[in-house]
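Open question from group meeting: does this chain pack into something compact, or does most of it stay loose? Before anyone orders reagents, we agreed to write out a predicted structure and look at it together. Recording both the input and the output here so the notebook holds the full record.
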Amino acid sequence: MKKAPKSSDTQLIPGIEQFLELLDVRTCDSDFGTLRDMVAKALKNGMQSALETPPPPRWQDKVIESIIPARASVLDVGCGEGDLLVRLSDSRQARVQGIEFNQEMAMRCIERGIPTYHGDLEKSLDNFQDDSYDYVILEETLQTLKHPIDVLRELMRIGRKVVVSIPNFAHWRVRLAFSLGGRMPKTESLPYTWYNTPNIHLCSINDFLDWIQTDKVTILKAWSLVAGKLEEYQNEHNLSAEQALFLVQK
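Structure tokens returned:
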């Protein structure tokens, strides 16, 4: 087990490193002082803008559209009503396919001319052949799955490249709300209460990166949403980013 690195705060507490090891804290991406500084910065900049900036709706779509080349084949897993696939078909002349569990949404896709499989995506992916699509997209869905790692591995099998977006449950506001309030936090990016949330497997950016390393996946490019603004991914974004988007390949 890796020892948690020392920080300005933890050095002041005798035995803190051993305690963190007992808690299975493998690495520290921040300390109490860092979190305090984030709060101070939010207060200085204005609480409304710093704490309650809602993420742009489906901000990932524009990024995805920018990376899909002309005439690529695209599978959108959990495609909703097919808005993204319609645009990719029109602007990129992409060969598109959707999978959607919600029957009304799947029917809407079909009405819009998008070939769509209606069914449980976790039970549908084994119907697709290896490397059958240039790009596979999993947008705002990973945390709602019963077997997320199995799905990720299937996507890597089906697609030559895979796009995955995740909410970051290690965002500083989530950490602060849970530690001080003692209840499951609610934010603009995570607006649900514990009893009606679709999110059943909560992960952070660092958790996702652990899977990247374990399965020897290559990150081609990554983006983060920080205070409502799109940035290229940086290591410190596990603390500051509300959401993240990854383009990966085997």
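Observations to bring back to the group:
The longest helix spans residues 32-45.
The chain has eleven helices and eight strands.
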